[in-house]
Amino acid sequence: VGGAIVSTPPNLGVILNNYGRSSDSDDLMRSQGKLIEDTLLTLGVPVRFVGWDVGPSITQYHIVPGYIERTTRGEVVRTKVKVSKIASHSNDLALALAAYSVRIEAPVPGTAYVGIEVPNRVSNVVGLKDLMESDTFTERKGQLKIALGEDVKGNPIVSDMARMPHLLIAGATGSGKSVCINSIIACLLLTHT
Question: Do 37 and 49 contact (CB within 8 A), yes or no?
Fold first, then answer.
């Protein structure tokens, strides 16, 4: 009846919900990647499709720039396709893929490929329970761990608020600022007594 002291954090399984995940088939991913490759080839930009990463709301297709061969004074000269040439065809790719938009990350940091990000047919909810039960969250050291979401590859993004010099949450109306703040508060309440 007085102020009871809670010595253990609450059970995540009781408080937070599970969300089902759906994803497009591997065959669809391969055919979309091949369509990107073929579309760029018809536009005079030879590339090679090498794989993909599926995130909660987009799929990033990995494209390796090819070579353009020209004959100069009887000698064949090969030049690598410029990344800017691939990036300039985002509208053509969106039309070919019947997507409302296509984002091109050229190049993907730390890799030798260009990322072409296409919205998934069905977006998935990134549940706080899945993030907090992930290895990334449980193995992360820190005083004020918070789960922030998933990256393009579907990997959890976890940070420690105690190590941040500041925290700014900004965005357009309806972009999820309040949801982010509520998730941060829930993470702190669910991990501290």
Answer: yes
